[in-house]
Structures are given as structure tokens and as C-alpha cells.
Design goal:
The chain is mostly helical. It has helices spanning 94-138, 141-284, and strands spanning 57-60, 70-73, 84-87. It contains 2 helices and 3 strands. Helix 1 packs antiparallel against helix 2 (141-284). Keywords: Coiled coil.
């Protein structure tokens, strides 16, 4: 069976709370549930009732939307007992409250049906007594015994039906207790999963922060490397310009050297011609 969630409000999470509102801070909890895991004087929390300063008693509520909630109550005997002190568990989530309301409505309906059945049984018994009186007045003993046996058989059948309805109500109550326990365990597991998810998210956030810082540092180093490369490129351009100037000077020097070499060759040729002429003159002498 699936119940519709009639509320989506979120509630704050507290490990321990003191209720003062008119709906949550009750002065009296009518019904309690015996829980061997939470009963007796509450000495761990060291919560003392302000009127007499004595330790409070740990109990578990078994009423309405507070079913399954632990609370502290006055541990004094009846007559001196001041009732409710404060809640230990905060209010159930709206989905669980709606489920509890549905379950309690089913229980109340079952109780009402049981009361109606008891009323019908009482009326039936009353009618049977009246009919018995009439039979005693109108029939002899043998006929009366047969009629009474028939009515008793009918009554036994009705009693059996009532017992079956009673067993159904008992099973329903047990199912309700099981559902409440399962919802409580589910709520605890969801809290644990939420805590683990928060821790994992925090770890991932820290890793992302470290990665961001590392990327920023690498980006800065890359900018410095690019700046060094630009400076090297400018220096290389300057050196290239100086080399080109040197090459141009060398080319010009080479051409000048060629021109001087040509002049020297001409001078040498003229000197050789003059030497030949001088030799011929020496031979003629």
C-alpha cells in the first residue's frame, strides 16, 4: 500500500532538542511504548527535572505523529509525577508523520469496527435472551433445548467471527510496530548516507581547489615561459639583423677586394710589360 505525501516541508536536524512549542513541547504523553533499548533513568544525558533536581526517565511515545520518538519524563511516582520534560528525538519528517497518521487512522477504524461488533453482539445476546424467555413461555422443554442449541451454535459462529476480527486487529498492530521500526531504521540510514555524501563532496571540493591552484601556478609558469620565448625571439631578431649587417659588410668588402685585385693584376701586367721592354733594351745594348 502506498500513501501520498501531503507535505514537502523540511525539518532541521538536531541531535538533542528541548521543545517549547504548543504542538511539540507537550506536558503529558498519554501512551508510551515499552522499548528494552531505551527505558529507565536517563543518566548519560544528565538531564534533571528542574522542580526536584532528580534524573529524568527515558520513555518512547506511542501516540499520533510522535510514535517512536524518545522523550524524557519525570520519574517520580504517581501523585508527585510532573509528566513530560523534553524530547530527545526531533520531530519525524513529514512523510513519516503522514504514514503514522494513516496507520493510526486504520487502528482507530479497526477499534471503531470492533466496538460496533461488540454492540451488535450485545444486541444479539439481548435479543437471544428475549427470544429465550419467549420460548420458555411458549414451548416445552425439549423444543426449547433444541432452539437453544441452534442459537448457541449461531452464537458460537458469531464468536468465532469476532475472534478472527480480533486476531486481524492484533496482526495490524504488529504490522504497525514493524512499519514504525523500519521507518526509523530507514531514517537513520538516510542520515548516514547523507553524512557520507557530504564528506565525499567536501573531499572532492578540496581536490578541485588544489587542482585549481595547481592550474593557476602552471598558467603563471607558462606565461613566464612565453615571455622568455618572446624576449629570446626579440634577441634572435636583433642578432639576425646584426649578422645580416655583417654579411652585407663582408659582401661589400669582397667586392672591394675584387676591385683591388683587378687593379693589382693590371699593375702587375703593366710591370711585366715594362720588364719585357727593359729586357729588350738591355739586349740591344
Amino acid at each position: 500500500m502506498v500513501f501520498e505525501d501531503e507535505s514537502s516541508d523540511d525539518t532541521s536536524s538536531l541531535s538533542y532538542m528541548h521543545s517549547t512549542s504548543s504542538t511539540d513541547g507537550l506536558n503529558h504523553v498519554s501512551f508510551i511504548l515499552e522499548d528494552p533499548d531505551y527505558q529507565g533513568l536517563e543518566l548519560d544525558l544528565m538531564v534533571f527535572y528542574e522542580k526536584h533536581g532528580k534524573a529524568s526517565e527515558g520513555l518512547v511515545a506511542f501516540e499520533g505523529t510522535d510514535t517512536g520518538r524518545r522523550f524524557l519524563a519525570c520519574a517520580e511516582p504517581e501523585g508527585q509525577n510532573s509528566g513530560f520534560v523534553e524530547w530527545v528525538d526531533h520531530r519525524w519528517p513529514p512523510t513519516m508523520q503522514n504514514a503514522l497518521l494513516k496507520l493510526w487512522a486504520m487502528v482507530e477504524y479497526s477499534k471503531s469496527a470492533r466496538v460496533n461488533d461488540n454492540i451488535e453482539s450485545a444486541l444479539t445476546i439481548h435479543h437471544l435472551i428475549e427470544e429465550k424467555n419467549k420460548l420458555e413461555a411458549n414451548y416445552d422443554k425439549s423444543e426449547l433445548v433444541a432452539d437453544v442449541k441452534a442459537e448457541m451454535a449461531k452464537k458460537d459462529a458469531e464468536t468465532q467471527k469476532l475472534n478472527q476480527k480480533y486476531e486481524l486487529m492484533v496482526n495490524l498492530t504488529r504490522a504497525q510496530a514493524t512499519v514504525i521500526q523500519n521507518l526509523k531504521l530507514k531514517n537513520v540510514k538516510e542520515k548516514e548516507l547523507l553524512s557520507e555524501a557530504r564528506m565525499k563532496l567536501g573531499s572532492q571540493n578540496a581536490e578541485l581547489t588544489n587542482s585549481k591552484e595547481k592550474l593557476t601556478q602552471e598558467k603563471l609558469e607558462l606565461k613566464l615561459q612565453v615571455a622568455d620565448m618572446l624576449k629570446g625571439k626579440e634577441k634572435h631578431s636583433e642578432e639576425k639583423g646584426q649578422l645580416e649587417l655583417q654579411i652585407t659588410g663582408l659582401v661589400k668588402g669582397k667586392e672591394k677586394h675584387r676591385e683591388e685585385k683587378g687593379r693589382l693584376e693590371l699593375q702587375i701586367a703593366e710591370l711585366m710589360k715594362g720588364e719585357e721592354k727593359l729586357k729588350q733594351k738591355v739586349k740591344g745594348i
